[in-house]
Amino acid sequence: MKKFKSLVLFLVLGFLVVFSAACGSGASTQEDTNTGSDDKKTEKEEAALEGSVVIDGSGTVYPFMSKMAENYMTENEEVSVEVSRAGTSAGFEKFLVEENGTDFNDASREIKDEEVAKAEELGIEYKEFQVALDGLTFVINKDNDWATEMTQEEVVKIFLAEGGVTKWSDINPEWPAEEIKPMGPNENHGTNEFMFETIMEEKDFVDSVNLQQEYSTLVDLVSKDKNAIAFFGYGYYESNKDKLNAVSVDFGNGPVAPSLDTIGLDDAAGYKAFTRPVFTYLNVGMAKEKPQVLDYAIYTMENAQTVASETGFAPLKDDVIQESISYLEGLK
């Protein structure tokens, strides 16, 4: 009997040892599994982008950059991309400040010497990127059926103080003897500067020109006045074709209508004389400091050609895009 009790006790103790070992092994496995899961979660959290990207500047570039921001935020929900349109010059004022400047400034002209000097004074490193090509477009009222085609010289004369053109009949005696209402964006916009500096060769605007801050105001004014003519980027015409007509311009080889196909063409069929690149300027310091800013810059260049075509711009060539992407990748 005594031997039997000893045997039972031995078996019970053995069972407890095996059970404890099994439980210990299971606990260890569970702990290892949880640790691995936490590591993966931490890595994922560290890789996720968050924070803000602040962009201001050109009203011309605004439709392009606004669409780009919308697309980006769909894929990166924790990043807020804020896009405003103070105008190129006003945008540079917000970009070139000692603290809390914008991350990007969109521009419909290149940065000026005095803006370069200010950047150097403040120690701000920036990088210029072309994002698309735009065609300076002259728009008229839907009821204007006489001025649908003009030569480059004729359309520019309308806006020149020395042009001697005040009525449509001054251009063509068969046209109405009614006063022309020239309009365009004001001096805050790079489009105004492109018109003044490049197209008008820095000659004064006619006194009667009506210069506005908002492109939507210009669209409205021209759509309501059959004697109005305004200039702005092709994208604003593209999105308002139901309200406006575009003037086909003869650069010497017959009238050319502005379009995504003709803007920037090098041959005689192109709209090249009124074509310009549009830009965004990146604060390189912010790109190095804030991962979301650099990521957005890369995303913008990778998708620039697609978004350009969708927002009324002619896309850049592949080699221009790739050069920009390579530079940005080098900042990582």
Identify the quaternary structure here: single chain
Q: What radius of gyration results from the CA coordinates? A: 31 Å
Query: Mind summarizing the main beta sheet?
Result: 9 strands, mixed
Our estimate of the beta-strand percent is 15-25%
CATH architecture annotation name of the largest domain: 3-Layer(aba) Sandwich
What is the mean pLDDT? 88
- Spatial gap, N to C terminus: 80 Å
Low-confidence stretches: 1-46
> Fraction of residues in helices?
40-55%
Could you tell me the number of beta strands?
12
Shape: elongated
Helices and strands, in N-to-C order? HEHEHEHEEHEHEHEHEEEEHHHH
CATH class of the largest domain: Alpha Beta
Instruction: Output the CATH topology of the largest domain.
Output: D-Maltodextrin-Binding Protein, domain 2
Alpha-beta classification: alpha/beta
| Number of contiguous helices | 12
Q: What is the domain tally?
A: 2
Descriptive overview:
Involved in the system for phosphate transport across the cytoplasmic membrane. Belongs to the PstS family. It holds the Pfam family PBP_like_2. This is Phosphate-binding protein. The chain has helices at residues 2-47, 62-75, 88-95, 113-122, 152-157, 190-199, 215-223, 234-238, 284-289, 291-302, 304-310, 318-329, and strands at 51-57, 79-83, 104-107, 126-141, 149-151, 181-185, 210-212, 228-233, 244-246, 248-250, 255-256, 275-283. With 332 residues, the protein is of the alpha/beta class. It has two domains: 51-133 and 277-329, D-Maltodextrin-Binding Protein, domain 2 (3-Layer(aba) Sandwich); 134-275, D-Maltodextrin-Binding Protein, domain 2 (3-Layer(aba) Sandwich). Strands 1, 2, 3, 4, 6, 7, 8, 9 and 12 form a nine-stranded mixed sheet that branches.
